[in-house]
Amino acid sequence: MKTCILFIMSSIAMLNCDLFSQPIIQSSQLSTSDLTFADQILYSSFCNMEDVESCQLISIGSPQLLSGADGVSTNLNGNNINWRTKEFKFINSQDYFWLGEEIDSNGNPKESYFFLQKKAEITVGEISFSDHFYKIYSINDHDQVLLEYDTENEDHSKICGNQDGENIPYQNPEACESSSCHIKVLMMYTAAVAAKYSHQQLLNFSYGLIAQTQTAMIRSDVHHTLELVAVAPTTYFTEKSSDLGLQLSEVTFAALQSGNDISQNLRAYAADVVTVLCDEKAWGSAQYGIAAVPASKTTGMASLNAITQSLNSQKSYSHEFGHLMNARHTNDNKALPGRAYDFIINNKHVATLLDNQLLPRILNYSNPNIMYYGNIATGVSDRFNVCNMWSHGCIVASIFPEDGCQYNMTGTIEGTCPTVLTHLEVNKDLSSSNN
Question: Is the pLDDT of residue 425 over 60?
Fold first, then answer.
């Protein structure tokens, strides 16, 4: 199927393409009485999620490629907000991705982002301002739930488990080269998470987390693409220890073995990495996630994420996924130049996604070549997450062999038979040391 890709640079004021024929969010708030009984149940379950500050029912228009100005407007809580398209990938009305930035009355970018993705009949999105954070989930084809999370007084100090990662030789940032590979992601969830959220909710959440991370990669000039291949429960793994390093080792070991639902799903869906969504309360710990640093066939291909901290403005899923591609914490010098970066903008101290120093995070991996809304660089030469992610992303994408292994074997057979060439094809087996 032909893909129409529209990329609009922030410096362009007008183009002959528009994204929406109507405002993205209608100004009137909808009534739940108009929903079917099943949709009312789903709406109620979304609005009763943990740590949600408030929610409302909204309507999102369908994207169309129309002639006109490139600006779109949003009416959110009675405030009219103008957005400009940054990137738009449109296959059809059921499969698209849109990323926008808020602009002021003079057309200058502001500290915000708005992404919207529809795939597999599921609409997900986020709206982020400097002081508010919203998530969008599907109720039906026309109406969505807008969830607002409390973003004040958040503690990022224990976002990541004690996983420093392996030492990797220093890479000269001037030698960094961009690459583009396709990474397949398997999302699994524990029984404790399943007790709180339905599978449909977890499907929505998972699409949203992948879209958030893909958005961060686009904003940071990382060209690897992510694909959610499956969302499934695990009965093999449970949150039974506050030692997240030990828990991660358990998932890594399971992924490399056979006879458990983690390895079975990895094989069935040919996933490169697996994330297990967990209930942090069952851990009895304030830690919110941990990941292989970096992911590989030898160090493992797994991450663990506390679900509520993944859904709110902590963005811990995108944080942990950065680790899988060898992005490092602010104070981790083991794989230079791939550390996080912090800076001050509009009298506010913020940091990129891999920060572990208590600072509010922006949805960017550190990159000295990317400006934060035209004001300040999101990295320096020795704080350059993206350099590591460029080089390691293709290693992650090749963790699971895509094709069956083939071997050519020759052998001498006793007697009068001549030497023969035998072609042998074997099935993929993650548990095989010869795979």
Answer: no
pLDDT of residue 382 exceeding 90: yes
Handedness of CA 109, 112, 118, 123 (dihedral sign): negative
Given a cut of 50, whether residue 434 has pLDDT beyond it is no
Q: Decide: 345 and 375 in contact? Cβ < 8 Å.
A: yes
Token duo for residue 134: 């919203």
Q: pLDDT (tens digit, 9 = 90+) per residue, 237-262?
A: 999 888 888 999 999 999 988 899 99
Distances (CA, A) of 395 to 154, 251, 264, 391: 34, 20, 22, 8
Pinpoint the alpha helices (H) of 331-375: none
User: What is the phi/psi pair of residue 131, to 5°?
Assistant: -130, 5
**Helices first, then strands: H and E counts in the chain:** 9, 22
The per-residue b/e assignment along 403-418, b for 16 or more CB within 10 angstroms, e otherwise, is eeeeeeeeeeeeeeee
**Tens-place pLDDT, residues 296-329:** 887 789 999 998 889 888 899 999 999 999 999 9
CA distance 252 to 249: 5
Residue 62 per-residue DSSP state: P
DSSP secondary structure code for residue 175 in this structure: G
Q: Quote the CA–CA distance of 297 and 300 in Å, as a whole number.
A: 6
* Nearest residue to 66 (alpha-carbon basis) of 12, 111, 19: 19
Strand segments (E) across 335-391: 342-345, 348-351, 367-372, 376-378
Per-residue pLDDT tens over the stretch 181-205: 999 999 999 999 999 999 989 999 9
Tell me the chain's radius of gyration from C-alpha atoms. 23
Residue/partner pairs of 105-113 with CB below 8 Å, 24 or more apart: 107/13, 108/374, 109/10, 109/84, 109/373, 109/374, 110/373, 111/345, 111/346, 111/362, 111/372, 111/373, 113/215, 113/219, 113/363
pLDDT at 39 over 80: yes
CA–CA distance, 69 with 1 (Å, rounded to integer): 27
Contacts of 2 by beta carbon, 8 Å cutoff, 6+ apart: none
**C-beta separation of 60 from 24 below 8 A:** yes
User: pTM for this structure?
Assistant: 0.84
Whole-angstrom CA distances from 420 to 74, 275, 414 are: 71, 46, 12
